[in-house]
Amino acid sequence: MSAIPGKIKGCGVENPVSVTSVAGIPLSRAATMDCNTAITLHNWVEKGVKPAVGRLGGGVARIDVISGYSCRTRNNQKGKRISEHGKGKAVDISGITLANGVSISVLKGWNSKAQGKLLRAMHQSACGPFGTVLGPSANSFHRDHFHFDTAKYRSGSYCK
Q1: Which of 53, 87, 96, 127 sits between 20 and 30 A of 47, alpha carbons compared?
Q2: Quick check: helix, strand or coil at residue 97?
Q3: What residues have CB less than 8 Å from 46, skipping those under 6 apart?
């Protein structure tokens, strides 16, 4: 894709890509991000999602994405710093859909016995490859999705 100029100071992506599938699994919607974030997402799907799900329900058929690039502040809060979404370094995942049609959603499954363990394994496997990993335990803004971004921190990944 062509470079995306920011509408707000600090936003924009120099070398964006539009991702429609990852590791052979379609996304529910195209997500725009930088190449590093796309590669990190691919690695997470291969090393975290696919092993966690295995053959359950016939395997992963779709990854449910709710956001990629979006020029905005953190949590859309006025006066906050620019979100990593505004830099093309973040993606929000609301769940996965299995081949048998069963949906595993972060909102409904996080605290369930059946799906909670699987969602927690996927969340944990993102910690390290991604710089920031947020989910329902982080705050109310993330109760219905995982936020993954490739921000770099001196102390390592921030995961909650």
Answers
A1: 87
A2: strand
A3: 23
Kind and range of the H or E element at 92? Answer: strand 90-98
Q: pLDDT tens-digit profile of 106-118?
A: 999 999 998 999 9
**Predicted model pTM:** 0.93
Contact 126, 133 (CB under 8 A): yes
For the chain, which domains are there? 13-159 (3.30.1380)
Copy the structure tokens of residue 146.
């995982």
Question: Which among 116, 152, 151, 148 is positioned nearest to 44, based on CA atoms?
Answer: 148
Residue 146 CA: distances (Å) to CA of 36, 58, 74, 100: 18, 23, 14, 23
| DSSP label of 87 | G
